[in-house]
Design goal:
With about 70 residues, this protein is an all-beta fold. It has no helices and 5 strands.
Length: about 70
């Protein structure tokens, strides 16, 4: 599933994503652990592992698969 970073607290790593249908879902810093993301920005497109209503378990850059790393 894909979404766009909607809000982001750079200090804590928490924020929210907005889906194409307008739904907003919060995420905690734990969603970024192990993702390889060094910097996240509002407006960035990401792929998510989560149930329809959350919580977001993991997120990574669109186009980078489960077994791929960002170099």
């Amino acid at each position: 599933m894909q979404a766009t970073i909607h809000t982001l607290d750079q200090a804590t790593g928490a924020g929210s994503v907005i889906f194409d249908d307008g739904r907003v879902l919060d995420f905690q810093p734990a969603a970024l652990f192990g993702s390889g993301l060094r910097k996240l920005a509002v407006g960035q497109r990401v792929t998510l592992d989560c149930a329809d209503s959350g919580p977001i378990e993991r997120m990574w850059v669109v186009g980078i698969g489960d077994d791929q790393t960002i170099s």
